């Protein structure tokens, strides 16, 4: 499929897809006219890349992770090194800390909303 179709099917811009290819995250063949030709499995790969970006990982780490992940066409091509596993564990811990901070912030906001709602009810009485 051409880059425009891949962009439409994944919701990712053509510019981002070219960047993914440049970073080694995504591969395509070239038509005789020089156009990119992506395989069907590129859709799943782009979605996976987007999930990893959303997790806060940068492209160089994603490039190291992707070969260790199972794709729809089979198992991982390489095993993760202990160093990569340690780095990913650190990333997960960072995300856990962020989640806990957000939960605390939401709790404070809930208290403020409850107090504000209570004072509005008291004013009307």
UniProtKB/TrEMBL annotation:
Under SUPFAM superfamilies, the record lists: Putative DNA-binding domain
Q: Does the keyword DNA-binding apply?
A: yes
- Gene3D superfamilies to which the protein is assigned, alphabetical: 1.10.1660.10
Q: Which SMART domains match?
A: HTH_MERR (SM00422)
- Using the record's annotation, list all stretches that form the HTH merR-type domain: 1-68
Sorted alphabetically, which InterPro entries does this protein's record hold?
A: DNA-bd_dom_put_sf, MerR-type_HTH_dom, MerR_fam
Q: PANTHER family attached here?
A: MERR FAMILY REGULATORY PROTEIN (PTHR30204:SF97), REDOX-CYCLING DRUG-SENSING TRANSCRIPTIONAL ACTIVATOR SOXR (PTHR30204)
- The molecule here is called MerR family transcriptional regulator
């Amino acid at each position: 499929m051409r880059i425009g179709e891949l962009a439409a099917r994944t919701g990712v811009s053509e510019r981002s897809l070219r960047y993914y290819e440049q970073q080694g995250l995504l591969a395509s063949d070239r038509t005789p006219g020089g156009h990119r030709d992506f395989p069907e499995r590129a859709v799943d790969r782009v979605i996976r890349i987007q999930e990893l970006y959303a997790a806060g990982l940068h492209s160089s780490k994603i490039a190291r992770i992707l070969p260790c992940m199972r794709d729809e066409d089979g198992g991982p091509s390489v095993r993760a090194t202990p160093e990569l596993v340690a780095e990913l564990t650190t990333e997960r811990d960072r995300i856990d800390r962020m989640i806990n901070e957000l939960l605390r912030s939401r709790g404070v906001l809930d208290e403020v909303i409850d107090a504000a709602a209570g004072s509005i009810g008291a004013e009307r009485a």
